[in-house]
Amino acid sequence: MRRSPSGAQPLPASGERHDWQTIKKLLPYLWAYKWRVLFALGCLLSAKFANVAVPLVFKQVVDGLDISREQAFIVVPAALLVAYGALRFSTSLFTELRELIFARVTQESVREISLQVFGHLHALSLRFHLERQTGGLTRDIERGTRSIGSLISYTLYSILPTFIEIGMVLGILLVKYEPSFAIITVVTLSLYITFTFKVTNWRTALRRQANELDSAANARAIDSLINFETVKYFNNEAFEARRYDTELAKWTAAQIKNQKSLSLLNIGQAAIIAVGVTAMMWRAALGVANGSMTLGDLVLVNAFLIQLYIPLNFLGVLYREIRQALTDIERMFGLMATHREVADAPGARALARGPADVRFDHVGFAYEPTRKILHDVDFAIPAGKTVAVVGHSGSGKSTLARLLFRFYDVQGGAVCINGQDIRQLTQDSLRAAIGIVPQDTVLFNDTLFYNIQYGRPEASREEVEAAARAAQLEDFVARLPEGWQTRVGERGLKLSGGEKQRVAIARTLLKNPDILIFDEATSALDSKTEKAIQAQLDAAARGRTTLVIAHRLSTVMNADEIIVLDQGRIIERGSHAELLAQGTAYAQMWKLQLEERETEDEAA
Questions:
Q1: What is the CATH code of the structural domain delimited by 2-336?
Q2: pLDDT digits (tens, 9 = 90+) for 329-367
């Protein structure tokens, strides 16, 4: 077994399959519509009975029209011709009824499974999503959901009807003719199926490798396109094209090898079918020659052979597709089986809304066992107060926000709200009480209105506009030709840094949280924009429990308490004036930033 990228749940190794387990997981979704399933199976049997009866009636027509036989061949063939036409029509009628009835089963099952996978992926930890490439992940889901329809279609519409028809034909051949006809049919089918299964099993590894390379190439392309601006900044279009072409070259080689194996399989199948058909027709011709069979019997055997040959010709393709569909569905179900690193505890309580005091109680945390991020961090944020955490990059500041949101669980100590360990609270109620304005505001590729309303999707237009006014966005929106319906582009790239931050503030104000987090909210902005945004941040924090994570000390001067973090440890705490008076780490950082600001002003 190999470990999943999240390190949580084992995934099957390349050559290891769990087809029956996959089918067992899929069946409950189909059985939820059991009456439709049973009716569709009834239509399937009716269609096959009609299809097998067609050659039998046709034999009677041929024998009735044989002028060498002394019988009335005018009235009887007319009735038989009507029956022949009715049976032909019945085959198509029951086939279409089966597909019509079963369409809802297939589509509703795909919808239900897709929704469950989507919900489960959102429930997984941040660690899982940071370690998985989005392009490959979406490809797995897309192939898995598409394969559910393919699997149902191939099995119910092709494989199952073929084996039912084979059983009926073998029964007729055994009852009406010499055993040699059934023996030839059984031997041909056995050779065909054995050859198909063995070669297809060999090809499965090739297909799986091609799919993995396809996902890798797709992930590479999406990763490059998402970072479009970075590629442009460093003039690396050719470099990205070469990297993408390297993945495509591997995929191309795998596809060529896959095609060679497919050609070998098709040639072998055609040879087996040709030998079987020749043997059957030779035996039937001998029967007609020695008088033990009529001309109608020869036509009947030939018709049966044609009816079996057509689906058998595609049996190998169907088997390959079913195997591939099971592989894709298994991969998707593997995502659903991925362990939720952060889950609600049994009996978890909802966090009551209202004033909230937050406490980091001797917290220890590490993303990886070998590299600890926080060491015995202990501080409190009283309800309605503002506490700022400052320090150099990599000191563990942003980790505090992730722990408060419970994207990860602490390994030592506890994070508490109103005296309750957040691990004993429901994640929904916890995150509903917290709002964040991050350093890098990522927006949906939708309208400005949609992105603000996302803070509380059920909010009215008046509430959205009020939040925008509080974030000083009203004048900006008024200047836009399309106003609120202006699309912001992928990740909000059509907006400036300051505009995106105002959207983030408006979205958070609309959410109306009891606890606010400003995670380096102005560090990516210039000094002028920072001053403008800072006023909105101060207004948003008023009356709320606020955690400010900052690198620029000018943004935290008014905090009730400032905590200095260094390599995951608290080294100083106090007000701005107290820390300056101490003349140690904070005072040195303040002096250094003042010098940097003076240099910037002189350059300007």
A1: 1.20.1560.10
A2: 877 777 776 667 777 888 889 888 888 899 999 999 988
Please, how many CA atoms are within 13 Å of residue 248, restricted to the half-sphere of its CB?
A: 7
Q: How far apart are CA 305 and CA 51, in angstroms?
A: 13
Chain Cα centroid distance, residue 214: 16
CA-to-CA distance for 313 and 317, rounded, in angstroms? 8
Closest CA to 517 of 544, 540, 547: 547
Contact 507, 467 (CB under 8 A): yes
pLDDT for residue 210:
83
Q: Measure the CA–CA gap between 103 and 82, rounded to whole angstroms.
A: 32
Burial (0-12, 13-18, 19+ Cβ within 10 Å), 187: middle
- CB 417 within 8 Å of CB 351: yes
Query: pLDDT tier at 417 (50, 70, 90 boundaries)?
Result: very high
CB count within 10 Å of CB 569 equals 14
Give residue 379's pLDDT. Answer: 92
Q: How far apart are the two ends of the chain, measured CA to CA in Å?
A: 60
DSSP H helices in 374-512: 397-404, 427-432, 448-453, 461-470, 474-479, 497-511
Which residue, 498, 500, 520, 490, is CA-closest to 452?
500
Q: CATH class for domain 358-433+513-603? A: alpha beta
- For residue 409, the Cα-to-chain-centroid distance in whole angstroms is 25
Q: Which of 252, 216, 244 is closest to 137 using CA atoms?
A: 216
Please name the residues in contact with 307: beta carbons below 8 A apart, sequence gap of 6 or more: 51, 52, 55, 165, 169
Instruction: Using the predicted structure, report yes or no on whether residue 73 has a pLDDT greater than 60.
Output: no
Q: Distance between CA 210 and CA 252 in Å, rounded? A: 8
Strands (E), 201-308: none
Side chain identity, residue 375? H
The yes-or-no answer to whether 2-336 and 358-433+513-603 have a common fold is no
Residue 211 has pLDDT above 70, yes or no: yes
Segment of 245-254, 433-442, 486-495 carrying the highest mean pLDDT: 245-254
Query: Strand order in 386-390's β-sheet?
Result: 434-437, 515-519, 545-550, 386-390, 561-566, 569-574
CB atoms within 10 A of CB 98: 22
* pLDDT band, residue 416 (cuts 50/70/90): very high
Closest by alpha carbon to 522, among 554, 494, 546, 487?
554
Helices (H), 542-584: 576-582
Question: Taking the CA atoms of the chain, what radius of gyration do you get in angstroms?
Answer: 35
d(CA 341, CA 159): 41
How many angstroms separate the CA atoms of 205 and 431, rounded? 44
Q: Which of 447, 455, 437 is nearest to 489 (CA)?
A: 447
What is the chain's length?
Answer: 604
Q: Which residues contact 173 (CB under 8 A, 6 or more apart)?
A: 181, 182, 185, 301, 304
**Do 15 and 6 meet the contact criterion of CB atoms below 8 Å apart?**
no
pLDDT at 10: 38
- Domain locations in the chain as residue ranges: 2-336, 358-433+513-603
CA atoms of 52 and 355, how far apart (whole Å): 76
